[in-house]
Amino acid sequence: MTVFKKVAIIGVGLIGGSLALAAREIGVFNYIIGIGRTPNNIQKAKALGVIDDYSVDLAQGVNDADLVIIATPVCTIIPLIEEMLPYLKKGAIITDVGSVKEKIINRVDRLNLSEIYFVGGHPIAGTEKSGAEAAFAGLFKGKKCCLTPSKQTNAAALKKITDLWTAVGSEVILMESTAHDRTLGAVSHLPHVIAFSLVNFLKNMDQSSKSIFDFSAGGLKDITRIAASHPVMWHDITLMNRTQLVDIIESYQEELNSFKNLIRMKDSNRLVKKMEEARNTQRNIIQKT
Q1: 284 CB-contact burial (10 Å; exposed 0-12 / middle 13-18 / buried 19+)
Q2: 121-123 and 144-147 strand pairing
Q3: How many other CB atoms are there within 10 angstroms of residue 233's CB atom?
Q4: What are 55's strand-pairing partners?
Q5: What integer pLDDT is reported at residue 208 of this predicted model?
Q6: Which of 96, 221, 233, 270 could pair with 70 as two cysteines, CB 3.0-4.6 Å apart?
Q7: What pLDDT is recorded for position 281?
Q8: Sign of CA dihedral 225, 230, 234, 237
């Protein structure tokens, strides 16, 4: 198992902080420095024991790091890589945890890195909470982590990052970046858009003196839980994956229209059949994942 002597984590929130805690617990990270533009969150991360030290200076933070983990909104990943390159030592590995991969991989491949290696990553884990205080060591246990190597990805660096995610309890899946963005657009990005839009729809529908939300039960809370997710992070994800996501939303609208038409026509048989199909899929497939 590779042990990284110095690890720099840019963005010590739920994902970055949880990886720090998990890797420290099993001895994979010796020394962790958190990097952020403002000191508030990274000071809190140090106070909580998530990191050993912190810096608001990117160049100082990544200096002499064996591994740099970028856990910031996806639109910031490429600018951060470009900014840090002059300050990295030879042999350093950069990885990310971003939910969109194709544009990042394509841009990094054009940078022609020399003796510095990049491995694109995306742990399929998280909660609606954010910040260093939301981090916990068990976040990745039993969860999938997608790594998206390209033809230019260094094999040794890929193995080290694969071993890291395996060590913290994840099942590593190697995926081509376009396939990743299509898949995650459907099972992650679309549900978030649905949750955000449903909450806003209900809020705008609420015209009575008694709030419509006073009548909601567990079902609404279940389906809208992820609407509490960080808006800036999800703004960046939806725009970076917009080509795939718009196509997926349009396909979903066709399915929603199908339900609408069956209800309008009072087509009981087909309506029940669609609901049974969804229930069986949810019970047999989704609950097992």
Answers
A1: exposed
A2: antiparallel
A3: 22
A4: 35
A5: 65
A6: 96
A7: 92
A8: negative
Q: First and final CA of the chain: distance in angstroms?
A: 27
Entry pTM: 0.90
Measured between alpha carbons, how far is 267 from 259 in angstroms, rounded to an integer?
Answer: 10
Residue ranges in the chain modelled with pLDDT below 50? none
Radius of gyration of the chain (CA): 21
Q: Provide the angle, in degrees to the nearest 10, between the axes of the packed helices 268-284 and 242-264.
A: 140
What domains appear along the chain, each with residue ranges and CATH number? 4-175 (3.40.50.720), 179-288 (1.10.3660.10)
What sign does the CA torsion over 22, 24, 28, 32 have? positive
The amino acid sitting at 256 is L
Separation in Å, CA 102 to CA 154, 157, 183, 200, 247: 17, 19, 12, 30, 16
249-to-76, 180, 189, 197 alpha-carbon distances in Å:
25, 17, 10, 12
Maximum Cα–Cα distance across the chain: 67
Distance (Å, whole) CA 45 – CA 81: 23
